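Example record

One chain of 527 residues, shown exactly as stored in the release files.
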Amino acid sequence: MGSSTLSIGFFFAFMALTLGITYWAARRTRTTEHFFAAGGQVTPWQNGWALAGDFLSAAALLGIAGIVTSNGFDGMIYSIGWLVGWPIILFLIVEPLRNVGRFTFADVVAYRLRQRPVRLAGAVGTLAVILFYLIAQMVATGSLIKLLFGLPYTWSVVVVGSVMLVYVLFGGMLATTWVQVVKAALLMGGGILLAFLVLTHFDMNPLKLFAAASEKYGTKVLQPGSKVVSGQWDAISLGLGLMFGTAAMPHVLMRAYTVKDAKAARLSILYATGLIGVFHLMVFIIGFGAMVLVGADAVAKAGGGGNMAAPLLALTVGGNAFFGFICAVAFATMLAVVAGLTLSGVATLCHDVWTNVIRNGAASEPEQLKVARIATVLISIFAIMLGIAFEGQNVAFMAGLAFSIACAANFPSLVLSITWRRFTTPAAVASILVGTLSSLVLIYLSPTIQVDILGKPLTAIEHQWWFVSLRNPAIISMPLSFAVAILLSLVTREKNANLAFDEMQRRILLGPVPPTTSEPARAKSAA
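Predicted structure tokens for this chain:
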């Protein structure tokens, strides 16, 4: 499907704006502190918008809207599941993260444990999460560029990966933050306007919209069912993954370090939670609006696993001008999230692996920046390859898998490291690796890969063990990760880790670690 000159004009206007931001930020990015954390100078209000921009990804605007359009009320589980995760971050995670760490969640887990094994294991878990989440964003962005310009899907993904590479490579966290702030504002405005235009067709009454959907497609679209999940266990598993995965997403946690202290970080979370909650209400209206005004069949024919519901609705209710605006906003959304994810992966490779494992904390600033930029190129290439391989998958569903890996790989070790004195290095390493590998194995055995990607008949796996039929593995992998961590902590002893627990608690309660402070000498000696 091609697009009008006006639509393409909106797209290039946003491109010019974000490239200008990148140029401005590149002139101010000279140290790793600026590259990874914007020098800690972002205000809570700005960081709240940036967090909303980081979190309101392609899965929110395109994926959930597409799921609601195709399945009705069942799509609400994604909105609720993700939103519930934010209070967990606010009350349990953000203060320890900001006061103890520096750039990544592995800073907190490794603080009182042996650095090298914990950071290496943490890198495995973090990169698995980031790459799966990148798949969702790249698939959606490729589908959008294909719809807007009529380019082949493969070339669309290559274009997106190349533009993202420029933003991260030169601008770092400062450029990423401002791109996220701009796109969050555009996304909120576009979502509210799109929902308003939908409701004008139904006397500004959402109940009339739902009634029209029920009349057109039957009452089942307004009832919980089994269209999004395969059954009760799959629903519970998806809910667990979305809730606890939100509290362990590396690119979200990394934003705790862009503000000056823990109080500012908490305020950021409060602002972000309000913005995200409002937007998800709009997405529900948008999904049902596309179902009634565009039609589920038309959305399905547009390709991309239903991801084009929102742009097609914009075209229906607002014409080419609004279609171009929503496409530009959607592109901004995905580009900002991809940049944030890439930056998080780069921080893991550069800060955790290169600086603290390979160079044992002795890498110079220029060396770290060089490694960071090499890692940016590598992650961008992987993102392009994975985006091409997973063409046609719904992005909200693919993002849900990333959250499932995060809740099993990162959440148990992060929580136990800040709450349990007995937690040890072998327990942390085993928890991260078992959570990551069990999630990946179960995803590979699930219908997601076996049926949707490899094309095997569903009957070939229906008679296997019940957990193989789960599309989301969190109900198995997260308890398994916790169990391994607790068991190994009970059977192993680590005196330094036990003694350092009090020091960690003091830092959590009494104030932030200055951003330039390196990891404790005690922890390095334990490596």
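Notes: Residues 309-358 form the longest helix (50 residues).
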